[in-house]
Amino acid sequence: MNNTIKNVLIAIIAVLAIALIAKSLLDKKEPAIDPATGTAAKGPLAESGLRFDGYYGQRVGDLFYLIRFFPEGRVVTVNGTKDVEKDLPAYLVRETRGNPGLGLHNVPVSLVGDSLVFVTHPEKGEIEYRGVVVSGSMVRFVRHSHITGTRQLMEYVFHPDGSEPSQQDGAEVVEPS
User: Fold this and answer.
1) Which of 142, 149, 128, 146 is nearest to 58 (CA)?
2) What is the pLDDT of residues 108-167, one digit of tens each?
3) First-to-last CA distance in the chain?
C-alpha cells in the first residue's frame, strides 16, 4: 500500500513538473514596443509585461487616476475630475516635470520580483503603490496613502494612445493593517 501511494505521488509531481515546463515554454512574451522609437523597448521594465503605447486608467467616483509607464523605469501619474478628464492623457509624457499640487508626478518605478513599486509625494506625505501586471490590459495596485492611512485596491485598465479614460468605476478600500 505504501509503495502505491509513493508511486502516485511521484507521478503527480512529474505531471506538475511537465506542466510547469510546458507553461514556461508557451508563455514567451512578444517584446514591448517603445512608441518613442518604434523599436523593442529597452530598460528595467521592458520585460515586465507592461505596455508602453498608451496609459492605464482607473475611475473612483468622480476622480480619474491615470498612469503611464516608460521602459527605462519611470512612471507618470495624474488624476483629475470629469471636468478635465479629456485633458489628462496629454500630461502622461516622459518630459513631465510633475506638479504635486495638481496630482501630477513623474517618479522612478522599481521591479521587485514580479511586483511594481513606486512612491508619489503629494504636498503632504506620500502615497505608495505596490502591484502587479495582471495581463496585457490591466495592472493591479494597492495604493497606500501614508497621509490618511487608507489602502485602496486599484485596477487600472489599459487604453491605447488616443483613447479616453474609462467610464468604469471601481476601487476597493482595503482596511489598514
Assistant:
1) 142
2) 999 998 899 999 999 889 999 999 999 989 999 999 999 999 999 999 999 998 765 554
3) 48
The domains of the chain are located at 33-174
Beta strands per DSSP E along 33-170: 33-34, 39-40, 54-60, 63-70, 74-81, 105-108, 110-112, 115-120, 127-135, 138-145, 151-160
Residue type, 152: Q
Give percent helix, percent strand, percent coil of the chain, each to the nearest 5. Answer: 20, 40, 35
**Cβ-contact 119, 151 below 8 angstroms:** no
Give the three cell numbers for residue 66: 491615470
Q: What nine digits make up the cell of 145?
A: 496613502
Retrieve residue 164's grid coordinates. Answer: 479616453
What is the 8-class DSSP label of residue 123? S
Give the count of beta carbons closer than 10 Å to the beta carbon of residue 53: 15
Q: Is the pTM of this model over 0.85?
A: no
Quote the cell numbers at residue 84: 478635465
Decide: 104 and 98 in contact? Cβ < 8 Å: yes
